[in-house]
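In keeping with the milestone schedule agreed at the kick-off meeting, the structural modelling team has produced records for the first pair of proteins. Each record is given below as a sequence line and a structure-token line. The laboratory manager (R.T.) confirmed that both were archived under the project's standard naming scheme.
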Amino acid sequence: MSTTARGSFFPVIRGSEIRACYNQHVVNKKTASSLEGEPCKGSSEDTRQMVRVEAAVELPPGAEVQITVCYKPDEGSAAQKRVVDLAGERDVTTKHLSFEFLPGKRQKDLKNSLRLFWKWFKTNALTPAGLFFWAVAVYYLVRLIRLSDFPIFFFTDEAIHTMLAADLVRNEFIGPGDELLPTFFKSGTTYNAGFPVYLQVLPVLLGIKSVFATRFVSTTVTLLAALGLGSIYSRVHSRDRAWLAVMVLSLIPAWFYHTRTAFETVEAVSFYTIFLLGYIRYREGDFRWLYVALAAIVMAFYSYSPARVVMALTGMFLLISDARYHWDNRKQLWKPFLLGLLLAVPYFRFLYLHPGENQHHLEVLGSYWIKSEPLSWKLLQFGYQYVRGLNPFYWFFPNATDLSRHIMKGMGHLGWYFVPFFLAGLVLAIGRFKDPKYRVMLIALFLAPTGAAVAEIGITRAMFMVIPAGFFITIGVEYAYEWLLKTARQRKTYDLLFFFLLIGCNFLFLDRVLTNGPTWHNYYGMSGMQYGARQVFGKILEIRKADPTVPIMMTPDWANGTDVLARFFLGDPVSIEMSSMDAFIDLHKPFEPETIFIMPQDDYIRVINSGKFEPMKVMDMIPYPDGTAGFIFANLKYHKLAGKEFEEELVSRHILRVDSVDVNGETLDAAISELDMGELQSLFDHDPGTVVRSVEANPLVVEVVLPKPTAYRLARVMVGGSATQVTVYALPEGSDNPHVSSLTVSESTEIRNVMVPLATDEPVTRLRFEVRTVRDGEPAHVHAWGIELE
């Protein structure tokens, strides 16, 4: 027996330091052995004997010793050896030289656990089900990484759901009008926020309010779309390739982009996907899934207004398509039918409490359905919009239809790189039209644009196209993949390589978006990206922390719904004022000298060019993503002559420009406010396509002098959609006191005629028309399309 000391910092243990006592015993094979060698080949188990060797070794703290035992099992066998490592207690004096991650026993347990995990991973994680799991994980991860940073905007349509949820919780789930658990919530001027508000309740209850938290809820909901599409694909086309459908969905540009936002459209589409899965499972004979489909369709219906059209038409077409199947199983359908009626009660309650709201919503959207046109014309308009929604060029190639903040530059909504795969998949699916499961997905494809076609095609309204399109793209991708590998043998290996290739594509996609996306579009204001909410309000919080009382004035013109964004970031009550810089440039409006003005670059330039302020003191600046000046924080001060300039502008604003106009063949002397669009004659040409607009005057004033006294009973003035007051002054012959009549109309989405009865039946020699937009001050642009007298 030999001993060897190990470790350069351990003392060497010599033979004299080991006290060993050898007691040789003959033992039976079944007796426990403290030191056992390898099995002895060729010996009988009945006659086999063993030798027990006991050794006592004294080791100082920190020492290690290795004992090697050499032995022969029998005379005819080769020598064998057994190595035993021994260690003394830990040396406290050399503690700084060693690191013990876990105690020895726990290290062994950890190694065993890792070994078992690796065995499970090799057995299960690389199976089709395992790849499906990892595909969903990758889908989720590439959306959560820097979720707050891209898209670069944080839009009011995202913030509104959180704020409505906060209001709901604060009011103990009672909405306006004492409505318990409201069906829909008012967002802007319409009731178009629904179930997504309730999804944001949990973060509100937990006291979490941030861009990441709001988007996280929506992004998490879209996992239903990934799981649903993968499951649909495995049930309908390829049982082992659910993971491929998830990877394809993740790489569709419009879906990638919008699933990183909190727009309700992606939540509605996710519920819609589960509805399709539930219906397919029901069509396979599993009637329990009909309840899943029903729950999903209800959540989609209450989430997004275009979803109501898509859901209704999809249900109708599926009812017709599978009528015989439904009839054969009618005994199974009465319970889901009754449940569906019950789930529709909140909608009927909404219609009862808010009559006319659906029409108002269409008016706000500018839908052709509320125009006074024949039904045939409206159906033609619907058909035109519907065909636009099926146009492959709209879906697969860059277009100028959608706003820049809803597109991924140069890619198309579904990705130009997927065109051949989509076409191939669609052709293969049409060939299997008799299969009801393929028929469901084809119906979903052709009905996807219907919700958007009610008003006008746009990617957010038509997002339902993504799911069936992703299904057919996946069929095409798999077909091409199988064709390329039709002679390959190691198919599982190639599947893994393809899987990891798609993972790489996802992360390359993410890298490109995060790197280049912020500068895809270089206009960051109202009509562009509406960038800056998180950055500007974050800076305001810093200012408030340093000085809670300093006045702050922020212009709201750089984004929609900045009042909602202010509440989201600053809380209630909002600790700043919001006012357009026009209020300070066009009117003399006093303010405290220490007031901090926050304005985008355009307003900053206008303030300088106005010439009414002393050189401003710039305190800070937030750049746009392209490096140009974005938001300027500055102190302003009127110069000494500014008051005189304002007085001169006010006088000049109300000076009328003398002109003449032809009215019914007669040339009349007239006067009108200064215009920057159109001419006076445009008001009397009986053409609703011509318009005039005042430069600054509100009201817009028109005066006409009649060559001979004429009696009129009615003035018809065509105005725009703003809440407007029309006033007519009629001066009788020989009088200095005009008769005044006035009429005010509320907001509308259409140009309309305001009928103002004149306040006198006497012949008049002079008429004055004033058109005032009641919610605007002065200066303001006021539009008018025509004036007619009866």
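The second protein of the pair:
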Amino acid sequence: MDGNIWQQVLQIAFLLEMINTVPFVIGIFDHPLQNLFIPVFLNCWLAKRALESMVNDFHRAIHRTQSAMFNQLLILISTIICLIFTFICGVEHLQRAGKKLSVFDSFYFCIVTFSTVGFGDVLPDIWPSKLLVVIMICVALIVLPIQFEELAYLWMERQKSGGDYSKQRTETERHVVLCVSSVKIDLLMDFLNEFYAHPRLQEYYVIILCPAEQDAAVRRVLRIPMWSHRVIYLQGSALKDQDLVRAKLDNAEACFILTCRCEEDRNAADYQTILRAWAVKDFAPSCTLFVQILKAENKFHVKFADHIVCEEEFKYAMLALNCICPATSTFITLLVHTSQGLYGICLIGVCPDDTKKNILLNPGPEHIMKPLDVCFYISLTKEENSCFKRGCKNSPKTQPPTSSAITSMGTVAIDLQELSIPSSLGPSLSAETNISETRKPNMVPVLELPDSPSFQTADMFSDQSKNPYQPYTGDEGSNDYVKGYPPDLPYIGSSPILCHLRKKKTPKCCMQLEKTCNHKDEEDVKAYSLKNKLIIVSAETTRNGLYNFILPLRASYRSENELCPIVLLLEHDLDDLLRCGVSFAASMVVVDKESTMSAEEDYMADAKTIINVQTLFRLLSGLNIITELTHPANMRFMQFSAKDCHSLAFSKLEKKEREKGSNLSFIFRLPFAAGRVFSIGMLDTLLYQCFVKDYMITITRLLLGLESTPKSGFLCSMSITEEELCIETYGRLYEMLSSTVGDIPIGIYRTESQMLEPPEVSLRSFHPQQHIYTIILKHHKYLHRHFYIQTHSLRRRSMQWASNLLGPWHAERDADRLSQQRGVLLSCSERLELTELVKKRMKNLGLSTHGFDRMNNNQSSHSYALINPSPDTKLELNDIVYIIRKDPLIKDERY
């Protein structure tokens, strides 16, 4: 009890009350003491203390817990005011014994003293005033730095946590919330570039909610003026309602929840995403939710989300289609990224008004367009929409307009257009009728083809032997398969797709190549007597996601001639690769291993995969190897050759684009252009674009065969042979296919021979409105034209003659060219040595080497994809055309 009394007595506030109160009480009883001076101005410190208590009680009453910064700022301001007020009043009173100063002079002296200016025009002339000045300066030097330090500490903590997004801003602004466990610079830039690519979203704000502190790279990016006023970083967890309140999630337009794919345990990463999705849905049920999930078996936990992208499903389906439709991964990646181009539109699907949700890819020419139907087309610029406007103006005013939402895939152009369909046209109205009305002048009519079996439409698509990716095995009407749904689904939520099933179940013992059983004697793939070429999948372990790899390859709409055997390779020895039949395999898919997806150093997670694939590429140069990588930036190491002049030339162009801030610089790499490398991170934009284009995920799933809709088409390919070269241009091929069999071409996969000299990549000729691969196409055409003009002998003589005229500069270039030729010869000899080494090993293992020389005797070539090329694009031999083919169950009733 005594301690409490002394604690109250020794408080500064109690002493101030005694100094300001006791003299008044004594002056009441003793009249002479009424003239005693009492420092009443010291009561300002008591008022400061009362103000702090009142503010704390007010915050406690309104349940405001985030007021530390406000309280500290209030304390600092009140302390400065009290110090200045005490100094002014004290100097003015003490100077009454000397040279009197007014209150204004005292205020002027206080400001000059605390600002360390000291003009000297106003000075205290007695020692009590001078002592007060010394005391006040010492107090200010002790008290104010402490207050400023506490305020700076709170400010730094506030900067780390990101502060709050004020409720007043939500009334006039729109924002979206991005929830991630950790922010990487690549993920952040990809999101920002794709989200702000659409002009309608320029005024939106992005609130990043992340439990980790932002690193230096992210901090530098967020300080760029382009992003500093539109992106707000909040450190917090989506599982805490306080942090969701700070982000004003209940007022947000949408919430994106992304999963960290660099975690060693991908299931654990999915579990965190699931909890975040549940917390967001519980806090803001009306907020549009976009969720990214890694494992397919965890997808059903977030079925309530508005848009879901399952990485495992898209990855395996895309890798599978790469085996039968080359460079599908490249085609889809470029399709879902925002780009600009030169050419027209390509109608690919319709969403009928009566179904609302079911999108039909190429429903066929017998589909009748109705009012309020939604059409989907590929457009590289929004200027092509003007062709629909012209069609509307030419139609009679009495015709009812069709309000159709014409939206473009993979572009920034989303416009609402009006299509007028004449009511006088009956059920015979087809897609060809609408196209002919707005046909471009450079699309000439298709010439009448000769009546020969080689030009019959049915023969063109039934002869699958023309396509090396679709081998021919004999009679199509085989009795080994039956169409049906898979009897056992690998995980909850998997989509049942009609596919080819074997009538007789293969014994489990026969499914293991490395073991013999009673049904086969050899430990080799030859024991199965397979007719089609193999598709080898190299994976770390068996997982449920492989179901999505098998599904597109066994879809019911593919003929039995296209069903290639699938070999799952789980071993790490090269001998196992030889035993599984790599010598006559069509493709080999190397899936990124989960155990190596995380590394201490960024981009080192792909080191093991890259080295293993490079070894296979050196030993089996003719094998079509399709690789999945974690980081898109590591694509430059695929099929790496330090002396490849073409790779070096395109590397310079990639560096130039990276300096401009492009997030698509990897598209200049030749392995990506050829569809031999893929990173699932490139499809993150699929989720981002769904904020504006909510149909993107559905259309992509239909293209990949992950979903099936009645009367909807599917993605396939056809090869251009010498018989089809008379069609000449892509536009005429489009008209012929759409008018005869109802197929819709959407792109070309082209392979060209690699010449010795590198392409002259001119950065000045690069136009932002031009499609990327048009540049590559022009460079390759330059190579062919230059190669056919001069023969090798004439070139050698002319270069020797020119070197004598041009001097040492041209001689140096000639020496470089000779060194390149010498490098090519050395690489050929090295390839022969490695081929002999592999053949000897196969003989030692008792394996047949038949066809191995033919597989490795491939000429070096470059491949690339053209999305919706110009109608004037010339067709070349061995071009593979991407086609959306209508459902084979639909009967064409036009003929």
